[in-house]
Amino acid sequence: MIKTIYFEDNMVKYIDQTLLPAEYKVVSCTDVKKLEVAIKTLAIRGAPAIGVAGAYGIVLGALSYNGNNKDDFFKIIKDSENIKNARPTAVNLMWAVERMMRHFASIKNNSIEEIKKELVLEAERIRKEDAEINRQMGQYGHPLISTGDGVLTHCNAGALATSEYGTALGVIRAAVEAGKKIRVYSDETRPLLQGARLTTWE
Q1: CB 3.0–4.6 Å: which of 8, 118, 147, 163 could bond 130 by disulfide?
Q2: How far is CA 100 from the centre of its chain?
Q3: Residue 172: helix, strand or coil by DSSP?
Q4: Domain range spanning residue 61?
C-alpha cells in the first residue's frame, strides 16, 4: 500500500510527486517552512494529503522549539499556522490546521512536552481518519462497478492525493480487491499530467 505522507522518527516523510514516475523518492522533513514549500511546488498534492501535511506542519513547528518559555513556544506554534496559506483553495488544509489549533488551545495549560506529544497524536488521528474515510468510500462505491466495466479517471484521486488508499481511485482499488476484472482509462490531465504521471504509476 502506498503511504503518501506519514510521521516517523520526529520527521514528516512524504513521496515527492514531482519526480514520479521516473523516480520514487521519500523525503524526510523536520522544518515547517520546507513542508510549506513542498505543498506550493506540488511535491505534496491532493486535498486530503495537503490537509495531513498541514496538521504535521503544526507538529514540526512545535517540535522545533527546545526551550522552556511558553510564550516563545506559543509564538512558534502560532507562526506555524501560516502553512495554511500554502494552498488557500485547499479546504482540507484550512480544516486540518484549524483543528490542530483548536486542539492546541484546549491543551495549552499542559507542559511544553505534553503539548508536543498531544499535537503529534492529533495529527496522527487526522491521518488515520483520512485513510479510514478513503477505505469506507471504496466499500460504498465499488458496488457501482461490475466486472467488464471500463472506468475513466481524470487527474489523480488515488493514494497519492491522500494519506493512503485514495478517493475515486480507492473505489476502483476496492473493486479490484473484490475480484472484479475492470479496465481503467487515465486521461493525461494537462498541463501537469497528473493522470499520465501519477494515476498510471499507481
Answers
A1: 163
A2: 14
A3: helix
A4: 5-137
Asked whether residue 105 falls in the same domain as residue 175, the answer is no
**What is the DSSP secondary-structure string of 177-193?**
HTT---EEEE---TTTT
- Show which of 137, 154, 175 is a domain's final residue: 137
Once rounded to an integer, what is the mean pLDDT over residues 180-199?
A: 96
Say what percent of the chain tops pLDDT 90: 99
How far is residue 140's CA from residue 24's CA, in Å, rounded to a whole number? 31
- Residue 110 sits in the same domain as residue 26: yes
Rounded to two decimals, the pTM is 0.96
Domain total of the chain: 2
Instruction: Say whether both 130 and 142 belong to one domain.
Output: no
- Cell matching residue 51: 490537509
Q: Which residue, 137, 159, 184, sits at the end of a domain?
A: 137
Burial 52-74 (b: 16+ CB within 10 A, else e): bbbbbbbbbbbbbbeeeeeeebb
Q: What angle, rounded to 10 degrees, do the helices at 112-141 and 91-107 form?
A: 140
